[in-house]
Amino acid sequence: xxxxxxxxxxxxxxxxxxxLPTRIAFIGNYLPxxxxxxTFTTDLCSAIAQEFGEERLFAIPVNDPxxxxxYPERVRLELEQEDVSSYERGADFLNFxxxxxxxxxxxxxxxxxxxxxxxxxxxxxxxxxxxxxxHTVLREPNPDQMANLLEIARISDRIVVMSQRAxxxxxxxxxxxxxxxxxxxxxxxxxxxxxxxxxxDRFNVEGQSVLLTFGLLSPNKGIENVLRALPAILRENADxxxxxxxxxxxxxxxxxxxxxxxxxxxxxxxxxxxxxxxFDNRFVSNEELMEHVGAADIYITPYRQEAQVVSxxxxxxxxxxxxxxxxxxxxxxxLLADQRGIxxxxxxxxxxxxxVNVLLANDALRHQMRKRAYLHSRGTxxxxxxxxxxxxxxRARSERMSRPRPAPRDAETIALDRLPFLNTSHLxxxxxxxxxxxxxxxxxxxxxxxxTTDDNARALIVVNALNASPLSSSxxxxxxxxxxxxxxxxxxxxxxxxxxxxxxxxxxxxxxxxSEDSHGRALWAIGSVLGTSSHVGLRGAAGRMxxxxxxxxxxFSSPRAWAFSVLGMQAYLDWFPGDRLIQxxxxxxxxRLLSIFDQTRGNNWYxxxxxxxxxxxxxxxxxxxxxxxxxxxxxxxxxxxxxxWLLAQQHRESDSVFVPVGSMGFAAGSxxxxxxxxxxxxxxxxxxxxxxxxxxxxQSWLNEAGVAFRWFLGENDLQVPLYDAVxxxxxxxxxxxxxNENQGAESTLSFLMALLELRSLELSSETQQFxxxxxxx
Length: 777
What we know:
The chain is an alpha/beta fold and 777 residues long. The chain has 29 helices and 24 strands. The strands form eight sheets. The chain has a six-stranded parallel β-sheet, sandwiched between helices. The chain has a six-stranded parallel β-sheet with strand order 11-10-9-12-13-14, with helices on both faces. α8 packs across α14 (349-361), α23 packs across α24 (618-630) and α23 (580-600) crosses α25. The protein is elongated.
């Protein structure tokens, strides 16, 4: 075992009193993206998963512009290299996702901004310990590179490097204290000490002496110097073949194409050595790579620059016990010391040829060199590396607990004026220190009826919209948001992953598990917080609850529960668009809606079920939204078709007055129930029509939204307003002969939700459709 690994593992023993971190996020490139950082991050994650459990970690890669990768399940969220907002969202995601620690794989070129400065946006917002692995440490950084690394070192709890030279540079150039740095050598596969002849038949080079260079090709690799050495090598060893394995680096290929590879092939031809050179232009799997390395008699790294503190390809060849010839870049000088390899000058083909001929002529010398390298590498296998990293993670957490630092603070937002003509007095009156009460007697809260998760979820959506509106300035709304979120937290059962719904005024739950619909509404409310709220505490609680509650929706049979859950998941995805797991769950539920629609539609009945009941427009809205965001045209078509049909069912025959489906609903082929008409139906219709307008741009959808909203104001069957401008409440509905004067939570929240959505449209200048109507409020 190397001294560095042994030192790191000793730290693990010192911090055994602290439990192992249960949730670790690794930020860096990830396979199948083709780069050394991606390979390293993937190998490190796999090693830690093997040693400590798969459930303990997940990865967050960075996508380069135009990159579209089919990542494995371990990848949970993706960052977009040049989109700084994705780094902000990544920080939010990590902060609420119950992470114990973040491990950053840092290389200047993989992050956006000057010298990769975008990653600082993420790091500055994180609340958990940060361990950063530096894959590049420059001796002469430019100002941006210097500033960025200094800030990363300041923010990070521990810094990991892979060579002593990197340690020295951090101390000398960047003034990073030695106490903050851990030296953990690059991990290597735990391979047997094989005879190269075992693998040569796989490359049709049996009986030949194999030289190998592998890795992504770029001009600084110096491969031309090995080609220039081949004539002198072949004069003494006519059986030599040189394998150059690896695809051209993607960045080089984008800017220069295959010019470097073409130069190499033309050089080999001009030197008369083409018959002894094999170009394997592929980014090979780990299994294939081990075969390539295994077949080599001599591995050569002819890099042309000194300033490289780590080489993954060198480490792999070293760990496989290869005889190695290398130019004197920093990592090679360190790793190949004490006769564990041969160092040759930069750009010196003659020295390369001489060294190859010496090793091929002296089997004993070559095998002694191989054995020294192999034995030295035993302490750096991925198993040992995983244990060393866990030791560093433990140390970072221990130090953070003993020396806590101030939590990062988000930039304060300036509250603007409250929405004009908006009266939230009744909302406040219906809310006590537990949450919003379910029912009212006229405008007086009816304490005896207690509370529901349904209504507190609706209330959270409304006040979250108020908080997010530039027209709102009331601190009261933020207080109410916390009140309603606290109710949902109380309602949620972490042991079952389900919400309870009914709570008595005496704070006794009246059921063990609430309805599927109440769960879906709660998920929708939590998603809306994550989608728009800037309140740190709310987002943290919402994030934890969302992660714990979302999967339950996959077990539901209620189409409305599916729809509410889709709305919540999409609100979440509006802020975390790269969360592939939530994307997949949203799509599962939306596809269920699409499936039942396709199965049920026909005979002038274009709906999801054989009956209409309540919150009907939420079903097409969810399908429209999911189809729009996932670019599923069939979903959008089905959502549009079902919404148009529903609107036709909700129009008075003689004119365009909105007549929502009555609370008793109606089945296909039966008489349509006209009453009781509920505010929740008008609200859902407004929302669905706005969504349809956002997708299609058609003005007709806004007209329909206006028709539905005017129902609240008196353009209805009874020509009486349901909205009470004095109290700010909304009456509970229309009976055949009168208005229900009680101003309960569901009705009031439905009105406020619809009003806020229309105000948002007006404010965005998408339409002036509702200006006069809004002013009348």
